[in-house]
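Title: Prediction job returns without error message
Component: structure pipeline
Severity: low
Priority: P3
Assignee: unassigned

Description:
Job completed but the reporter wants confirmation the result is attached to the right record. Sequence as submitted:
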Amino acid sequence: MGSLIRLIIGVPGAVIVTGGLFLFMAAMIRQDPRLNEEEDAININITAQIDDTDINNANREFKRPTLDAPPPPPPAVNDPSNRPALNGVAAAIPEINANLSIGSGFNPDRDAQPLVRIPPQYPERCMNRAKATESVLVQFDVTPDGQTTNITTVESSNSCLNRAAERSVERWKYQPKIVDNTPEWRRGVQTVVTFVLEG
C-alpha cells in the first residue's frame, strides 16, 4: 500500500521537475549574448627565457669540501706496572665422599622414546560385556626408522580388546634407539593400552 502511494506522488513530481529543468535550459539557450569584439585578445606567451651559463666559470667556483682528519690513535702503554695481576686466588678443592650416579643424561646413546601415541578406539562389539576401564599389555619392536612392528598381546583384562590395542600401537611413532650415533632396533618394548568406557 505504501509503495502505491509513493508511486502516485513520485511520478507526477518527477514529471514536474524534469519539465522545469527543460524550460530553464531552453531559456538559457535563447539568450543572445553580446560579445564585445573591440576588446583586445589576451596574448599569452609560454616561452620561458633560458639563461646560458658559462661552464668554465662554474667549474672555477666549485670547491671540494674539506674532510675532517681522523683522530689520532690512543697512545700505547708500555709501562709493565700498569698491567693487572693474573695470580688469582688459591683455594683447595673440597672432597665430596658420595657415590653419585650420573645416569644416562650425559650419554649420547639413548633408548627408544615415544613421539606419537594415538589412543585406541573402543570397539562397539566389546561394549556390552566390558568394564568401565580395561587394559591390554602389548609387546612390540621399534625399527631404526621409529616404526612399531611385531606387535603381540602379552596380557589382557578383556580379550575382545586385543585387536583394537594392536591396531592402535601400529600407528605409534618412536624416536629410535641410538647406539654410537647410529639408530638401532629396540626389541621387546612393553606398554599398557588403557580403554576407558565413557557413558
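Comment from assignee: result matches the submitted record. The chain has a mean pLDDT of 78.
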